[in-house]
Amino acid sequence: MTPPSIPTTHLAVAVTTPGQPLHLVRRPTTLPSLSEALIHVTWTGSSPIDLHRADGGLLLGDTTPTNPFILGCTFGGTVVALGSNSSSSHLAVGDTVYGFVQDGAEQEAGYQEYVTVPTWKVSKLPSSSPLSLQEAVTVPGNLVTAMHVVTEDLGLALPWPVTPPPTAAGVAGEGILVWGAASGVGMYVVQVLRHWGYGNVLAVASARHHGMLKELGARVCFDYRKEGVVEEILGYVEKSVGNGGSGPKVPFIVDCIGSTEGTLRPLTKIAEPGSKVGVMLPVINVHAGQGQEPDLEMDVSKVLPGEWKEGVELKGTRTFFYAKNEFFKNHLQPEIVPALLEQGVIQPNKQRIVEGKTMLERAQNALNLLRDQAVSGEKLVWRVADEAN
Ligand SMILES: NC(=O)c1ccc[n+]([C@@H]2O[C@H](COP(=O)([O-])OP(=O)(O)OC[C@H]3O[C@@H](n4cnc5c(N)ncnc54)[C@H](OP(=O)(O)O)[C@@H]3O)[C@@H](O)[C@H]2O)c1
């Protein structure tokens, strides 16, 4: 039976028809089974994936007005119940928690007042933490993404507990180019690389973010808005990046944006045979604008065919599959993410709090900011439950 303080139904924000405004729907609150936690959600964060779903109709499956797609890849809130196998987990009723979840999964998607989530997708914010929940909620989606792209797509080691990378002498000296370093994903990629000892991080972002990125760990920054940025990067690596005279001058590249013209085209001129390039999917051929239909591509090999040098290893990043790495499944959200945050190793993204009278209005206002490409060096966060502090 549902404990009396837990409502049997609650509100959620969903896509019902691509290209149409978001909807508020009412769905049943699911009590946690076995190794799950039921969480009262007070904060969430918006990401470009919401726009890809809402305007681009990306991987919406059989979404219809009667089968809505609940949005939200992150949640922050309070544990209100635990499944019977969860008593030995890292959680207790009353804990303040946050996590990265799968949007579209009815029980766990973040834009709803209650989520029912496997405990391995939950990080605890200790009561002694100096961080607020709205700060913490900026972290899980993009930090998990950063660790996934570095390990799965670049093939670099991130051992836990942290030790210098096994090939420190070689890899630490080799260049890792992070294009789109001021994005939500990029800021965590830079910090993760620094913490694990990969010291030669080249960051590409607007000039106004260069000071911040150097503080987070970038060795050198380039301004993608400046004409000739590709030649500038090539000139720098020609002179400065040690690769022992063999192999690609930039062996590792993370494209944190995945824009055909904005990031991939310039990267075709930088990547060489042997370079590994991790690209955030979907690739954006046309960005969703006010009244402009987006064009998205999930297969990175179909983008700019014939323009990459033979031997460049292109990888499309898909973080929703990060738990295929069993170690990450068991340790990333329960242990590693909160430890990095509490130790002050990882600084949360700067937050922009999106206001609105209702949770639907806040979700819609955040979507408008994403549509207008008004997010820069920050993460959009907003209150979910109307009664949240
Ligand atoms: N597949 C996956 O696993 C996965 C996971 C996470 C995110 N993603 C995708 O990755 C993309 C980024 O997500 P996010 O949350 O990090 O985005 P975000 O923070 O909203 O991105 C905004 C930032 O993009 C930067 N930017 C835009 N165009 C750029 C360009 N041509 N070169 C360099 N920087 C550029 C801007 O930098 P400046 O401020 O410097 O101008 C701005 O700070 C989204 O499409 C998202 O859906 C995919």
Automatic annotation (TrEMBL):
Coiled-coil annotation reads 353-380
Q: Which InterPro entries match?
A: ADH-like_C (IPR013149), ADH-like_N (IPR013154), ER (IPR020843), GroES-like_sf (IPR011032), NAD(P)-bd_dom_sf (IPR036291), Trans-enoyl_RdTase-like (IPR047122)
Q: Per UniProt, what is one GO molecular function of this protein? A: oxidoreductase activity, acting on NAD(P)H
Where exactly are the transmembrane stretches of this chain?
A: none
Q: Show the Gene3D superfamilies listed in the entry.
A: Medium-chain alcohol dehydrogenases, catalytic domain (3.90.180.10), NAD(P)-binding Rossmann-like Domain (3.40.50.720)
**Family matches, as SUPFAM superfamilies:** GroES-like, NAD(P)-binding Rossmann-fold domains
Which residues are in the Enoyl reductase (ER) domain? 19-381
Which is a Pfam family this sequence falls into?
Answer: ADH_zinc_N
Domain of life, source organism: Eukaryota
Q: What does the UniProt keyword field contain?
A: Coiled coil, Oxidoreductase
- Sequence similarity: Belongs to the zinc-containing alcohol dehydrogenase family.
State the protein's name: Chaperonin 10-like protein
